[in-house]
Amino acid sequence: MNRFWRVGNFWRQNPQRSPLIEVEDSISLRVLVLALVVLGIVATDIAAETSFSFWALPLSVLGAIWSYYRRRDRNVAVKFCIAIGMLVALGAFFGRLVGELNDTRLGLAELLIQLQVLHSFDTPRRKNLGYSIVIGLILLGVAATLSQTLAFAPVLLLFLAIALPTLVLDYRSRLGLQPLKIKNEKLNQKNSSTLNFKFLILNFFLIVGLGLAIFAVLPRFPGYQLRNFPVSSAIPVKGNFTGRSIINPGYVRQGKGDNQGTGTGQNQTGQPGKVDNNFYYGFNSQINQNLRGEMKPKVVMRVRSQAEGFWRVLGFDRYTGKGWEVSRNEDVTTIKRSPWSYQIFLNRPLITAKTQEIVQTYTVVADLPNLIPAMAYPKEIYFPTPMIAVDTENGLRSPVELSEGLTYTVISEVPYRDRTKLAEASTKYPQDIKKYYLQIPPEIAEKVRQRTEEILANYNQERVAKSSKSLDSPYEKALYLAQYLKQRYSLPQNPLDLPYLAEKDDLVEAFLFKYKGGYPDHFSTVLTVMLRSIGIPARLVAGFSAGEFNPFTGLYVVRNTDAYAMTEVYFPKYGWFAFDPIPNHPLIPPSVEDTQTFSVLRQLWHWVAGWLPSPVTGLLNNVFETIFKWVIRAIAWFLALFSQGWFGVLTGLILATTAAFFGWLGWGQWREWRNRRWLKKLPAMESLYQQMLQWTTQKGLGKHPAQTPLEYARVSYQHHAPAAAEVIDEISQAYVSWRYGGHSPNLQRLRERWQELKKTTK
Description:
alpha+beta, 7-stranded antiparallel β-sheet, 20 strands, about 45% helix, disordered N terminus, transmembrane helix, DUF3488 and DUF4129 domain-containing transglutaminase family protein, membrane, TgpA-like_C, transmembrane
């Protein structure tokens, strides 16, 4: 961006219109640099699914050709045009920032591509080509952050293969050597004028192998540890959004199966039907579990999360005999966001359990219903629509379908699962919980209750015989019943083997007493109803499992076949916790766990505490706990400033800048104190000599380690005033005589001359 200065400087340095110096004539270097830039642009297009290459590549090639043929000309008009074009590109970038409030990576990449295209028309020198190399590398880095598949890997390898000979040619150009020649015949390694491909190939495989080895041994995290909130561009919403309707393309509505879904599943009755091939049947306000068939696997979204979890979509409270429904589907709350931010704050439930904040970023790969997947207990969501809706089961709903390419971020306050505390939870449930989450059809209520109590009684009898603890809490009962269904009931070997339920059949009754099994979601339905039959509030919740974690991209790849339903159980003061009774699934779905980062330090402290008296140990524990608590509160308060609008951001920046300034000031004072302490410990002559070297280093002429003191003294006459050079020479001579000759210097005279020199130079 300093082209105006370069033009003026050129006219001052070239009044006779002489050719520019340091012109780069190597065609091979220019071609390789252009290839690196092209790869950076192509990588950005592949990762972000954009089309910058259609206009950027031909213009870059044209600019490279123009720049080569005009490399010895002044090109003043071109420089002015390039500078104006860069200013226009910068203005357009700031204009785009209004619509991209959170994730500006793609906008920055586009700005960089525009600047590179303009810059390619003026690259006469090697330094200019170096700028293009850096731009290509930056574009590759941006593509790496945007990429969600391994399609980026071949571009990365190709970039490395081209970068190696480019760096060789660039280094030779810096040294002023003749350009290398590339020969087709057998290469002679002793010929310095020939590009050694064997050497480059060997280094290529060495770098790739070393990189993979480092990648393999690095600690693996399932997601970013730093908060990052990518969000798609704003989506306008037409009409009045109430949040009451659920748009699932897998359900046929109003007899139109072409444009609103091709599935044959019936969403309002329990009549037999087939499962849609692409869309999960459970994402609707009413679901029918009297369906048969299976979905064709396809990727529907990719998730970057700080912890593995269940991507919750929708909850159901009313059991209908052959499925479920949301009984309070009309009772939803719409929440609008600020026009200046994508951030939407959600109401947080009153729970006392220990929680952890988990950031998740979702990228939709295939069309999904207008239900927003998120981990349990979301507290903030960064979504591109002006508003969203929240239903009574804490499900999030969008005004539009989640279409391909949509990106949003959710911050959830996920509770830890403490088995001891949950087992001690009260059984005094609020009235609104008992009203909606203990409902069972009266036709099967008694029969299911007897079967459930029989299972628990048999367990208690076995435990009494073995002198073990009996089941006396809702948590332990839910855990055992889920495990019992896993072990005693089975899935059909063929999805079509299970017959349809008759009109008067009940799904839970047929599962327990007739078929001894069912589809995966049937297990969760049965567990939910069994818990309700013995007075434990429960509901059915549908969503996606974590999916397959890709260690190369750090993303969870989620498919439509990862969607299923499981049971959530309510515990007063602790909230809802999930149980998974489906065979081949973990009994407890993955969620947050205590980190073991400082486990060694904790073990060491326990060992030390074992040698200390109990009062001392308790005092130290309280002190450490108080310090840690205040530090955490201070950090949390500082981070919270950035979520309080522009005033909070400015306050946080001011505090951070002030803290950085005082930190820098303290660091400088500490280094100065250490230096003074070190000088005091040295012999007097050594201390004076070191002070002189530090002073000359500050003046811009430091002593090279290979120089002797006398050589350095001779060089000082070329860079310092004669009076200063004489003092430096005298101190150096005295130091050598003292150090190597054993002569005692006249320290008083040397110090007086040294003080006079410092006073005159000030």
